[in-house]
TrEMBL record:
Keywords: Membrane, Transmembrane, Transmembrane helix. The chain crosses the membrane at residues 12-31, 43-66, 78-96, 132-153, 173-192, 204-226, 232-251, 272-290, 310-328. It comes from the Bacteria. This is Beta-carotene 15,15'-monooxygenase. The keyword Membrane applies. It comes from Flavobacterium cheonanense.
Length: 337
């Protein structure tokens, strides 16, 4: 069969499919060292993982929406109205307390992360017969939902999505055991069906199955198998952020003409990918710098001014790009094709 690459086999393989496997290999090879440094997150770890990957991937959406003049004009009301909506919702939620605010945002973030894996899987199965698409849906949702159920039903984990106690917890060993067997039964079913179909049709969808297996491994080892904050962050952030930024660049910049891109056509030139990355890094660092001096004061502190009385405005406002990214993804990737 002709493999349904988004761009090319090499670029898809390196930047979209490989990150989950590479990070997991690093975790398995250096787990003892990672465990030792778990309690001592360095400034550079925060800078690379949180700022330059996690926050940066949020802003990569700009290159598909706000930075593309024709696209912005086409859906102007959405692109203007959604950030305002996100701020107002965030402001209302924060009035009920910061814990309520971060809990709601955490659930929205989890849904966004799950849907991204589903989206990649659908992209890579776009040429297949949709009769048995429900089986692919079953395995990709099982690969992501089961680890989250494990998180909700197990004793306290050593990591958080945003803040402590953000998820409702219900410790239940019996339910954990039931869900575990259901999950592994689905995994076995997927493996048997994939092998059978490959032999029967003499074809194998490499990228689709790589996304499914990579998702299963990164979510299972990041949340269920390991109970380590740094391991969770590595598998969660890298496996999500790098493929997303790569998709934006490969699909929205590499494939489009200079006329379509307008002023972004500079990214089509030599070393355009480096310009793309640098822009994202600058914007991401600028946002996180504001978070640090106005809210967190953990990595950077350059002022003694107390902003605590302004948190009800500052936190919802600073969260607008992130919140908008989560919701906007539900619109910009939909296609009837």
């Amino acid at each position: 069969m002709v493999q349904p690459w988004i761009h090319k086999a090499k670029t898809d393989g390196v930047f979209i499919l490989a990150p989950s496997f590479i990070v997991l290999a690093i975790v398995l090879l250096f787990q003892n060292w990672l465990t030792e440094i778990e309690e001592s997150y360095s400034f550079y770890t925060w800078l690379f993982l949180i700022v330059f990957i996690d926050v940066a991937h949020v802003y990569s959406t700009l290159f598909k929406t706000y930075f593309v003049a024709s696209e912005f004009q086409r859906r102007k009301q959405l692109y203007i109205g959604l950030p305002i909506f996100c701020f107002l919702i965030g402001f209302i939620l924060f009035l009920f307390g910061s814990q309520v605010f971060w809990s709601v945002l955490a659930y929205v973030a989890v849904f966004h992360f799950i849907r991204q894996q589903y989206g990649f899987m659908r992209l890579y199965s776009r040429n297949e017969d949709k009769t048995y698409a429900w089986i692919d849906n079953l395995i990709i949702y099982s690969a992501t939902v089961y680890p989250m159920l494990y998180w909700f039903l197990s004793p306290k984990r050593k990591f958080n999505w945003f803040v402590e106690n953000e998820f409702l917890k219900y410790e239940n060993a019996t339910l954990l055991e039931v869900f575990k067997w259901i999950y592994f039964a689905i995994v076995v079913f997927y493996l048997v069906r994939t092998v059978y179909n490959s032999i029967k049709s003499n074809s194998f969808n490499i990228p689709k199955n790589a996304i499914i297996v990579g998702t299963m491994l990164s979510w299972y080892f990041g949340i269920v198998y390991f109970n380590n904050d740094l391991v969770f962050t590595l598998l969660n952030v890298v496996s999500h952020g790098i493929p997303y930024m790569s998709l934006i660049y490969l699909n929205e910049i590499e494939k489009k003409t200079k006329e379509d891109l307008g002023f972004l056509s500079i990214l089509k030139q030599y070393k355009g990918v480096f310009i793309f990355v640098i822009i994202l890094m600058i914007i991401a660092f600028s946002e996180e710098f504001l978070w640090e001096i106005l809210v967190w004061n953990e990595q950077i502190s350059i002022t003694n001014f107390d902003f605590s009385n302004w948190q009800f405005i500052l936190v919802p406002l600073l969260t607008v790009p992130q919140f908008t990214h989560y919701l906007l993804d539900g619109f910009i990737w939909k296609s009837k094709k």
